[in-house]
């Protein structure tokens, strides 16, 4: 009879995601994982396969936990542009509070592992697509509410916001004063409203 699992699989994935996010894929060893997660190596391999398989599960968890939540956040009701601004500024504020800002798991992964790993690339594209779609849904709501011009190329604007978000999370890792980036965010958002009638 198989021994019952003594750990919460989803909790292990969540904590593995945090470890990969902080340390990166290559520098996180199986020993690091088993030590931080409190899981025996044999259990880790039986449950998740190898380190790479656990990493792919961590990327999927990041997608579900963070990227998929963007659209609902932007569509909670009321003006959308302040919500978009709050999402972007929120990452700056987080970097200010961290001793060593870690940026975005997806941006970090793209820089570390791509090109060269098609399965990881699919995961990265999936997260970026979800973020872009979240921004697009928010911008469509903003256009309906008159916050931005309905003539604005909304898919292009959503792609621009996605690039801004990802780029922002790379820059905050090296910037000695991430709060100065608030003005850059406001300039980008101003461009969205410049054609409003």
Automatic annotation (TrEMBL):
InterPro entries: Homeodomain-like_sf, HTH_TetR, Tet_transcr_reg_TetR-rel_C_sf, TetR_C. Residues 29-48 bind DNA. SUPFAM superfamilies: Homeodomain-like, Tetracyclin repressor-like, C-terminal domain. It comes from the Bacteria. Keywords: DNA-binding, Transcription, Transcription regulation. Residues 6-66 form the HTH tetR-type domain. GO terms for molecular function: DNA binding. This is TetR/AcrR family transcriptional regulator. It comes from Nonomuraea terrae.
């Amino acid at each position: 009879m198989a021994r019952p699992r003594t750990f919460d699989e989803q909790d292990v994935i969540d904590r593995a995601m945090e470890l990969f996010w902080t340390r990166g894929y290559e520098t996180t060893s199986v020993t690091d994982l088993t030590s931080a997660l409190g899981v025996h190596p044999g259990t880790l391999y039986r449950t998740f396969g190898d380190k790479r398989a656990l990493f792919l599960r961590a990327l999927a968890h990041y997608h579900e936990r963070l990227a998929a939540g963007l659209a609902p956040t932007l569509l909670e009701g009321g003006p959308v542009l302040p919500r978009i601004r709050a999402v972007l500024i929120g990452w700056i504020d987080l970097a200010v509070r961290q001793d060593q800002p870690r940026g975005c798991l997806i941006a970090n992964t793209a820089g570390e592992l791509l090109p060269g790993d098609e399965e990881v690339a699919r995961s990265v594209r999936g997260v970026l697509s979800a973020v872009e779609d979240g921004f697009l849904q928010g911008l469509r709501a903003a256009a309906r509410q008159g916050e931005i011009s309905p003539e604005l190329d909304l898919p292009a604007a959503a792609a621009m916001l996605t690039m801004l978000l990802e780029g922002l999370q790379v820059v905050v890792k090296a910037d000695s004063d991430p709060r100065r980036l608030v003005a850059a965010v406001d300039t980008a958002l101003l461009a969205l409203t410049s054609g409003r009638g």
